[in-house]
Each structure stands twice: as C-alpha cells, then as structure tokens.
Amino acid sequence: MKKIIYSSLLVLAITLLTSACDNDSDMNSPHGSTTPPEQVVLNGVKNLPGKSIIYFTQPSDKNFLYMKAVYMTEIGERSTNASYFADSVVVEGFEKAGEYNVKLYSVSPGEAYSEPLEVKINPEEPPYITAYKEMEIKPDFAGIRIKTSNTSNETLTFYVYRKDATGKWTEAGALYTKKQEINEPIRGMEAVPSEFSVVVKDRWGHLSESKEISLTPYYEEEVDKKKMGYLAIGEYKGYLAPNANTPKNLYDGIIGSNNTFMTLTTAGYDFTKPSSVTLDLGKKFKLSRMIVYGRRNGTDYSSIFDGLYPKEIEIWGRNDNNVTKFDPENDEGWVRLYQGVLPRADGSVIPAAIVPLTDADKELARDGNELEFSVDLDAYRYVTFVCIKNYNVGTSRINVAELTFFGTPEDKIIQ
C-alpha cells in the first residue's frame, strides 16, 4: 500500500513539474525567451546639462527583463540599460544642447526586443561648454588660476598651454576636477610675460574652444628656513624650554620624525582657549601658500588626524615685533590671513580614532596639508599659527612637525 502511495505522489510531482515547465518555458528562462516583451510606458523626461532622464513604467509582462535606450551622438550610437527594478534611465554624452531621438526597447531574457518606443529629449548645454563660457583666467603664484562653475559636478579637465619662444604651444599643466565651484591654481611656471591657452574637456572626449590670454605669473619662492625665527609672546610659556618643544622645530626642515613642536600642559596655559605660536619669516613676504606637517615617526601615523593634530586653525600676520602678546581683538596690527580646517584626504574632519586612516590619508600626511592665501593680501614678516581646536581631545593643544611657507618677497612684488 505504501509503495502505491509513494508511486502516485511521484507521478503527481512529475506531472506538476512538467506542466509548470510547459507553461513557463518561454518566460524568464535563463536560456532566453524568444517572445518580445511589451513596450514600456513613457512617464516623462527631465532635461539636464548634457543629459536627460527618461522616466517609464515597465510592462506587466513576464518576458520583460530590462529596458534598453539607444540614441545617437556625434561620435556614433550609444546605448544604456535600465534594470528590471528601475523606473528611469539616464542618457548622456551629448556634445551640445538640442533635440535628440531616443529609442526605448523592452528586452526579454533571451535578448528578444520589443518594437521601439521613440522619445524626443532636449538636453541642456553640456557642463564643459558652460565652464568654458564662464571661465576666468588670472595670474597666480608661479602660474595661473582658473575660476568657473560646474554645477553638475561633471568630471572636467582643463588643459593649459603656453606659447614658447618659437611660437609653439606646449602643454604647461592640467587640472582635473568635479568641484561645483572651480577656483584652482596650476603652478610650476616662470614669472615672465606669457601667452596662455586653456581648453576644457569632459569625460566623453568633447573639447571646448580655446580661451587665450596674455599675463605674467607672480613670482614665488619657498621662505628660507635658515633665516626664520620666532617670537616668544603670549600667555603660553612652554616653548621657552630648551627642549623638543621649541618652535625652532617648526622650521628645521626635519619631517617624519619625533622632532616636533608640542604645546605642554605643564606650561600652565588654558587650552580651552585658542593657542598660538608666532614665527619670524626673516623679511616681508606676500604669502601664497603654506604646508602643515603633523607628527609622524617614519611609518607610525598614530598622531595623524587624531590627538593633537590641528583641526580648526587661523593664520595671522603683522609687520612689527613691538608686541607682548597675540591679541587681535585689541591690537589692529594683527591681520587675519586665513581661517579654515586641515581636512583628511576625503575632505572630512573625523578623527582617526573613529574612522581609521586610509592610504590616501597617509599620503596626505607625507605631503602635508597645503592651504592657500588670497592673492589680494599684503606682505607680512611675522606670522602667527593659531589652533582653535585639535582633532581628538577638543582643546587647542598641538603637536606639529613642520610649517613650510611660500610666497613673493617684498622686493620682488610687482605692483
């Protein structure tokens, strides 16, 4: 009796399985369906700079696997797919604004295509053209500065060419960026009158026209650390001790060791207030940039973007040393040159104790945090580094290995 029951159940299972296979053999089969799915239903189009978003509803068809959009650009046919779970597709890579035709195909697992649903789109002016039109090219320290907008966060490349003595254009540098507001220097150039040309390229290979300008980059040199010194002013007295905490360590040229300047709790200073150290550049400089190196002992990065690594800082300048303390609120001789943060490689200021260091963070630690000064600032001899808050413990104590300054000495400033 049991054998009969088992046999009957087996026959029933085989029958049901065979029936299911017969009914669904042409639906979502991994080997492919030869039946074209129904078309998608168009829900609308959103036109954006250099691209359009097409919204659709997929058909209630078991043969539908994905949607394929096919369109033409100036370099030929392009296509992009929208998955089974998507309700929109982005078509992009257009050279200019205008009307374009897009064909939408429903596709089965066996790559059987529906009849195309034709859609007209009107992408707006591509970001590379807008960036070209709005681009300003100005002289900067040891180079030029490019200022423009890129509201779509598109990946853009700015190629800079400089005309040599023979009249030939040679590449002088390039800028790669996705920033919305672009205000970046391209350096490494001599401070001599020159003709420049800048071309903008997007990730699709489209090139703008060239924008040409004649200008002279500002002269830039590194401040000679052998001629630097410091002023022992203010309430903090710890740096007066003849040991590893002297400010001289900030300009001794030694990076990547424990030879640092660290403010001490034993100095009796209230580090809930900003702390500062004032350096003498030896003569007046119109500062262009500055590099801050944190404490790093070889491959030991435990102090980088953590602990006493400066986070919120200010840089102040003045031109006389007839001063006993850093008090910009009551002494107009102090001028603020910079205010900002020293960020990690990804732009964040999260302590390494919370988010571990990345390889990019370690590379940044080796290269140093570079900050720029406005070209509109005057020249100053005395520079004060102010820490508002460090990375971890929330006070203004710091442990810094080196400060490197660049700029134009007063005698080489062109008015």
TrEMBL record:
<feature type="domain" description="DUF5000">
    <location>
        <begin position="252"/>
        <end position="407"/>
    </location>
</feature>
<dbReference type="Pfam" id="PF17166">
    <property type="entry name" value="DUF5126"/>
</dbReference>
<feature type="signal peptide">
    <location>
        <begin position="1"/>
        <end position="20"/>
    </location>
</feature>
<dbReference type="InterPro" id="IPR033431">
    <property type="entry name" value="DUF5126"/>
</dbReference>
<dbReference type="Pfam" id="PF16323">
    <property type="entry name" value="DUF4959"/>
</dbReference>
<feature type="domain" description="DUF5126">
    <location>
        <begin position="125"/>
        <end position="226"/>
    </location>
</feature>
<dbReference type="InterPro" id="IPR032164">
    <property type="entry name" value="DUF5000"/>
</dbReference>
<protein>
    <submittedName>
        <fullName>DUF5126 domain-containing protein</fullName>
    </submittedName>
</protein>
<dbReference type="InterPro" id="IPR032527">
    <property type="entry name" value="DUF4959"/>
</dbReference>
<keyword id="KW-0732">Signal</keyword>
<feature type="domain" description="DUF4959">
    <location>
        <begin position="20"/>
        <end position="123"/>
    </location>
</feature>
<dbReference type="Pfam" id="PF16391">
    <property type="entry name" value="DUF5000"/>
</dbReference>
